[in-house]
Amino acid sequence: MIIFVAVKLKQIFKKQCNYPWPRPDLCPRCKASGVWGHGFVAAYFDALPGCVMLRRYRCPQCHCVIRMRPAGYFRRFQASIKAIYESLSLRLSKGGYLPGLSRSRQRHWLKALIRNVNAYLGHRWRHLLLAGFMRLLAMGQVPVSSRI
Predict the structure, then answer these.
(1) For residue 148, what pLDDT is reported?
(2) Could you tell me if 103 and 54 lie in one domain?
(3) Which residues contact residue 143 at a Cβ distance below 8 angstroms, ignoring those fewer than 6 apart?
């Protein structure tokens, strides 16, 4: 289970395992108290040159592992939501790509967005892809996910 937390990614990178992550009061799955630390896991983000150690917690009742993650990022994505949106906006408006990010990843995001907009919103949205991105976000979907 992932809990998104409003934190500064650069501060986490600087402090690594010494970063003061907030501890959940209750398990998000079973609502038991007494969640304990369960170590760290390495994660990579586009904005940083190396790995970041993200805090994990474990519930003593249901054994759920809770992973903390910076807000502003989708699950399993290294690029921020803002960077993905800017990439799609540039590609759709001017046909270019954002510098510093892999072109193949940016093409993947566009292809996945088209597929998700068609699947969840219908063919009427095919010319409103950026609006579809925002609509899918509001629906709780990851607009550029390869899974439907």
Answers:
(1) 74
(2) no
(3) 112, 113, 116, 117, 132, 133, 136, 137
Task: Domain of residue 60: give its range.
Answer: 2-70
Do strands 2-5 and 51-58 pair parallel, antiparallel, or not at all (unpaired)?
unpaired
- Tens-place pLDDT, residues 37-65: 999 999 999 989 999 999 999 999 999 99
What does the pLDDT look like over 23-35, one tens digit per residue?
999 999 999 999 9
Paired tokens of 118: 């068609």
The pair of structure tokens assigned to 63 is 């054994």
Closest CA to 144 of 135, 134, 133: 133
Question: pTM of this prediction?
Answer: 0.88
Please tell me the total number of residues recorded for the chain in this structure: 148
On whether both 58 and 92 belong to a single domain, the answer is no
Half-sphere exposure of 136 (CA within 13 A, CB side): 27
Q: If you write DSSP's letter for every residue of 45-64 in order, what string do you get? A: -TTSSSEEEEEEEE-TTT--
Number of domains observed in the structure of the chain: 2
